[in-house]
Description:
Blueprint: E1 8-17, E2 20-21, H1 22-30, E3 50-51, H2 65-69, H3 73-89, H4 95-99, E4 102-107, H5 114-126, H6 132-143, H7 156-165, E5 171-175, H8 177-193, E6 199-206, H9 211-219, E7 243-244, E8 246-254, H10 255-260, E9 267-275, H11 283-295, E10 302-308, H12 316-325, E11 332-338, H13 339-343, H14 350-364, E12 386-392, E13 398-404
Parallel strand pairs: 3-7, 4-5, 4-6, 10-11, 10-12
Antiparallel strand pairs: 1-2, 1-8, 1-9, 6-8, 9-13, 12-13
Helix pairs in contact: 3-7, 11-12
Amino acid sequence: MSTEQSEVWVTGIGLVSSLGEGLDAHWQQLAPGNTPTPSIDTDNQAPFPVHPIVDFDISTQIPKRSDQRQMGKWQHLGTYAAGLALDDAGVSHNPDLLAQTNMIVAAGGGERDLEVDSAIMATLAQGDQEDPGTYLNNTLMSELRPTLFLAQLSNLMAGNISIVHGVTDSSRTFMGEEMAGVSAIETAVGQIRHGQGELFLVGGAYIAERADMTMLWEFGHALWSGQQGSVWDRRDTDGGMVMGSAGAFLVLESKEHAEARGAQPYARINSVVAGRCNRQAGEAQEVAEDLLEQIADRIPSGPLPVLSGCCGVQPQLNEELEFLKGLSAREIDPVLRGVTTVLGNTLEAQFPVNVILASLAISKGAFFDPFDDTGVEQEFSGQPEQVLISNWGHWRGESLALVDKPDVPLRGQD
């Protein structure tokens, strides 16, 4: 039996963020020579700035009013971005292709109905309920839509994508912040390479303009307050995250499957590696070094574009930056871009966002100008043939990925 593994191509992309909707809108903001103008809301969740999602017409991807009503904004965003990716890949109007499309979604714990929650808390605070527990249960059952009940139905996004877009092969949901997005793409890549599927829809979504999530992050002292600037500006501070809204989905497929249907790739996913630790001093860097060792023979010496999903939380921010600067010891010259400067931390969607931006740079033949003026990010000239992605979770998990040009021979592969 042949042990040759299939290449994994990115053939469809759906992206909606605070910068815009679709690849053209994002390229207009991020193309060399342009200065991105991040959308920042400093009022809605004050004193914590967030990157809000742009307006988009959900009816173009979710036409039925009944489907729209039973979803919240988070599901609207994910289902919408998934539809964009399917359209872009030329899959959405082909029942045969949809029936063989596997789906892996990175999701949080559902979403709350804040109006119902606020009314319940206000009533309970008055203290005039003889049986608060019974009141709470009865109100939740009568007032909440079933899709919001208990806020733990993380697989609802996958279910709605299947219903609305007709994706009917296997479905899997990973739950768990930034690393859920890593695991989703890592799993799809592994299954394609080992012949366990040829066509995958993979991604996630996050809505930053949620008071309940802002409250939870601040309970963990994880948010940045005050003026929004470059993520690298937080190096000499206690740090913190600026959250961002995004829906990010990709269609991944084997080279053979794509060629058979005449699909053209944006880029090739060379490798995805991930690990985790308890985040004692120095442990995350050790994990990252081990991950780098697994892919080092696939990276040529010289300038290397790097997209970092740097969260902004300390000490992870400084540790990740130190690790990336340490690439120079391997004769690799990292040219960094802190993605969260312009998009915020999009949590479950962060890794898919980074893969999309890497694919965009590869397909356009140009890397993004520096996102800040701190001196951390340097200019890059020439056409990028490979982009390294570094994505450390704000609490747990470290990951690296390589995205490269499909027509460049693979290095260091067995």
